[in-house]
Design a protein that fits this description.
Elements (H helix, E strand, L loop, with lengths): L3 E9 L2 E6 L2 E7 L4 H11 L3 E6 H6 L5 H8 L4 E5 L5 H9 L4 E4 L1 H5 L1 H11 L4 E4 L3 E3 L2 E6 L4 E6 H10 L4 E5 L12 H10 L4 E5 L5 H9 L4 E4 L1 H4 L5 H6 L1
Parallel strand pairs: 1-4, 1-13, 4-5, 5-6, 6-7, 7-11, 11-12, 12-13
Antiparallel strand pairs: 1-2, 2-3, 8-9, 9-10
Length: 242
């Protein structure tokens, strides 16, 4: 069973940034140009990149499409999202060479439409991003760049999509995102038990190679690496060697 190491590039106003717990007021801006960073990851051995248009995630329209295209043009496989709300947005991303489109807010708010896109474009070309925050006993699903809370829960929506043929699920524990506190392994064990047919991408909080091993043992099929790589806690080469 394959296991992917996927570096993340979060874009805001064309620059590489990271947010703490999805808070736009808690931003760290990094010096590498996103195109140069993508090339660095490619040369280090990455096969995939995860690219997020943070401006688009909040505004609801793609705002960093030119940068995403420049990254794709390096020849690396890219899954990208942020601001995808309609069929035209998917087509724009596919047209610039994105291999998989990441659907977040629209997947939570308009499941029937997204189920139609799974049929239209093929389930291997779509990654569902059901990013979550635990409140009491429920895993809630914030949307719009994690600024609004929706009624659906993770335990309701993940099986619903699995039953409709979805293949890829990216899940971030928002409380751990950008915090370097380690993956929420309990969450990923829960998901792989509940929806084993979905290829789970673990995201949020990775701080060490041991976290990568733990996510794989919990059943994840990929890990998304952001701040840990940008701040040199370990190298991409070391992560790939896992």
């Amino acid at each position: 069973m394959s296991f992917d190491i996927i570096p993340a590039i979060d874009l805001r106003e064309g620059r590489v940034v990271r947010l703490r717990q999805g808070d736009y007021a808690q931003q760290t801006t990094y010096t590498p140009d996103p195109r140069e960073l993508a090339l660095r990851y490619l040369h280090a051995g990455a096969h995939w990149l995860h690219v997020v248009d943070l401006d688009g995630a909040r505004s609801g329209s793609l705002e960093n499409l030119a940068v995403i295209k420049a990254i794709v043009d390096h020849g690396i496989d890219v899954q990208a999202g942020g601001g995808v709300r309609g069929e035209a947005d998917l087509r724009r991303l596919f047209d610039v060479g994105v291999r998989r489109v990441v659907l977040g807010s629209v997947a939570i708010r308009d499941r029937e439409t997204v189920a139609g896109w799974l049929d239209m474009f093929g389930s291997d070309r779509i990654t569902l991003a059901l990013d979550t925050r635990r409140v009491g006993n429920d895993w809630l699903l914030p949307s719009a760049g994690w600024t609004e809370v929706e009624a659906a829960t993770l335990d309701e929506l993940a099986p619903w999509y699995a039953a409709r043929g979805a293949k890829h699920l990216l899940c971030t524990d928002i409380e751990r995102d950008g915090m370097l506190s380690g993956f929420n392994i309990e969450l990923y064990r829960h998901l792989t038990d509940r929806v084993p047919e979905l290829a789970l991408q673990a995201s949020g909080g990775v701080r060490s190679l041991a976290d990568i091993h733990a996510a794989r043992e919990a059943g994840a099929r990929a890990v998304i690496l952001g701040r840990a790589l940008l701040e040199g806690l370990f190298t991409l080469e070391d992560a790939l060697a896992c």
